Every structure is written in structure tokens, then in C-alpha cells.
Amino acid sequence: MLKVVLITGISGSGKSVALRLLEDTGYTCVDNLPARFLSEFLAHSVAQGQERVAVAIDVRGLDDLHGLPALIRELRDEGYPLRVIFLNASDHALMQRYSESRRRHPLTERLRTDGRAPSLEECIRVEREITAELREQEHVIDTTDLTPGQLRAWVRDLVQADRLQLVLTFESFAYKRGVPGDADLVFDVRCLPNPHYDQALRPLTGKDEPVAQWLQQFGSVEKMIDDIATFIRRWLPLYMQDTRNYLTVAIGCTGGQHRSVYVCEQLAIQFADHSPLLIRHRNQPAVDPVL
To answer: Where does GTP bind (predicted)?
Structure first.
């Protein structure tokens, strides 16, 4: 039986966060699907043998939105196990989010009269009126005071999605090239002895045995690795409770070739029992696969 989740609600209330969570948990997701195509899309999904699909329909498809409540009832009568999640938030929270994102409300052009653009407050008020019937008959999540992690957890529990194991990534990088934008935790190992100044070791990397042996002679290197590992072990359970799917630990040195690479490799050994585990060395073209 095809499992269907429909995400709808007020613009700016977190639909993108919810849809990404469902995509990460194995749903085939479609954003901004016109409501008139929903029946056809579900029939096609069944024919293709899909097991789980998620669709976001909201005021962006205003012309079709008025008939959505009736369509939902029809689809349920036809036997589709359709779960609808309506995301909502306070006016104050919505206005703050729009201010931070600097995006226009999707009804701005629709409500423009005599060359005058409507205020954000007007757009939100009209959208609430348009979606009132949906809000009254479906499951509502108020995201006003929710963090994105909490919203993901609530959606996941509601749809009983499979809980994913957190992907732990160790990534080496060169500070001279900038800190990785996807890093969650960053550790600076530039204080450790540098093999770069040994002419024989300079062309090698932290994955090469001569470099590893050279670094192993310094107690500070082992101590740094142990301290980082202890920190991660202590806090990893809380990151997992936050319903994260990924945690990237970035280790940086000056050139991203020796010390950071070696530390990442040693940390990966210490966390070998964690699966999935990913090792990345940003200054090298090859990326090790997920274990």
C-alpha cells in the first residue's frame, strides 16, 4: 500500500524543513505540486511501485487550493492512506522569518491592486483565510517556538518514518583555503608538530606510513586525538537525540595535507564501530565511501 504524506500550511512555517526530512527518510518528494495533479501523481506512483511519497501543496498553487479539502476526502474514500500535516506559526514568527530570509510572500503579486503591493500582514491574513478549512480538519503543528530539529522530530514521529542512523563524517581541510561550510564541529590542529618542514615528508600525506610514524613520536599528537575523541563520544548521543542525520567533524591544519589528514584517519579508527562512517580529505580528489 502506498504511503502518502501531504505537507501544507502557512508560508514560512517550515514546509521545506519537513519535506527535506521526509526525503532523507526515503520518501519520493514533490514540492509545489498543483492540487489538480495530485490524483494523477498518486496513481502513477502506485503503477511505478512506489511505497512512500510526500507532496507539498500550498498557496503557491492558489487556483487549485480551494478544492484541496474536497480532493483529500475523495482520495481517502478511494483508499489512499493520506496523512495531511498542516504547519502553522504566529504572525510575529512569520514576519521575523520573512525579514531574515528577505523573501517575498507568495501572495504578494496576486494581491497587488492599482500598483500597490500588499503588506506582509495582509498576505498572511489572506492566506489564513484561504487555508482555514484545511487547518480545521487536518493535523496542525505550530512551529512558532520549534527549532528545525524539533520540527523534524515531530514530523518523523507523526508519519512513523524510519529513524536513520546518524552519518558521522571526519573531514580534513586547509585553513588557508577556508573552513568547510558543511562543518558542524571544527578542531584546529595547527598547534601540532608539522611534517611539512621535513623535506622527505613534505610531498607525502597523513595517510602515508612515514608521516604517521613521524607524528606518533609526539605525545601532543596522541593527546589531541584522544581529547577530540572524548569530546565527540560525550556529545554524540545528544546530537543524535536532536534527530540529525549528519554530523561533520572538520579537522584543520595549515595545508590540509599532513596533520589534519592523520588526525582524521586516527579518529576514524577510534569510531570504527559507528556506522555509517565517512572520511573526507578536502585537499584530495578521492573521497572514501560510506562504510
So the answer is: 58-61
